[in-house]
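Page 47, continued from p. 46.
Same chain as before, 234 aa.
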Amino acid sequence: MNSSHETLAARIDARFAGQLTRIDSACGELTYELGKNDLIAVATALRDDAEFGFEQLLDVCGVDYLTYGKDEWVTESATGSGFSRGVEPQPVILDESDSFDPRRFAAVYHLLSLQNNTRLRLRVFTGDSNPPIVPSLVEVWNSANWFEREAFDLYGILFDGHPDLRRILTDYGFIGHPFRKDFPLIGNVEVIYDAEKGRVVYQPVSIEPRTLVPRVIRDDNRYSADLKDRVNDG
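Result:
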């Protein structure tokens, strides 16, 4: 972490004591976590206070931590069962419950101060509500408008106070949110042209479900006893 980051961190700790919690970053980003109830007040102060001067919001990213930290493979040693996930059906996780894990969904904000030549990253978890909700920052930075629409479209995060929260990347009739970790890779519906109706229609997806995790083949001709004996005899 360079000296400018440490100077900024000291100012933030003094100004927002108890509101912002610093998070370790493997790539050297200055990152803080805060509660969604403090988001608008903190964002406004970061924009307006001269010692911070974050006049630009560069990006808003949605994150789904559903399977965060879970490994699919045992990589330290070879196993005979490492491919089981690739051949055995896995349970489908549905979003029909009244609540989520409070640290499943998050919105991440990337800020830039041109006057101070500094950058800052904020992370806000949505809490346990279903659907996940955080306040909109359109009134603080107008650039949040389409960024928040993208996070809504792909992750289903609602931004309270957004003036026009509509899908921005998927089709109008799209079902679900494709960047959620439990969203099926084949989707839920497909679009075809119906010759009888003379128009495009939606129907249940006809693609057979498949798993992209590769299967490890351990029993092939390279391990044939006859082949090994023939090589040794030669």
